[in-house]
Amino acid sequence: MGLLDRFRRKPKPGVLRTASSNDTGHLEEWAAARHGVEAFVEPKTTVTETTVVLVAHDGEWTRRRIDGTDGAKKFARKLGMPIYDAGIVGYPQRMRDYTARQKKRP
Predict the structure, then answer these.
(1) Is residue 72 scored above 60 in pLDDT?
(2) Largest CB tally within 10 Å, which of 22, 79, 87, 95?
(3) Strand partners, 94
(4) Separation CA 17–CA 4 (nearest Å)
(5) pTM, rounded to two decimals
(6) 68's torsion region: left (phi>0), alpha (psi -120 to 50) or beta?
């Protein structure tokens, strides 16, 4: 244990981190820099809080925590984007294609 370790803020084991203004700020900036963005809400699990995945027209995507399903709906309404439940509709093929293209890059 280092000298300053006891003063660092560490989350308690088993405590989920909730969404922060940094998370929503990232999502807003990301969506503003791309077009054709759609939101896909992922439900809360035992490991993570509710998250939202934003997917652009070309399949590029990002994921961050959000303040519940209602928070995700409010966020999508604010930015004027469609929102889907990922557990029901799944993810768009363009997202999987984008991820596969990124894996092939050197």
Answers:
(1) yes
(2) 95
(3) none
(4) 23
(5) 0.80
(6) left
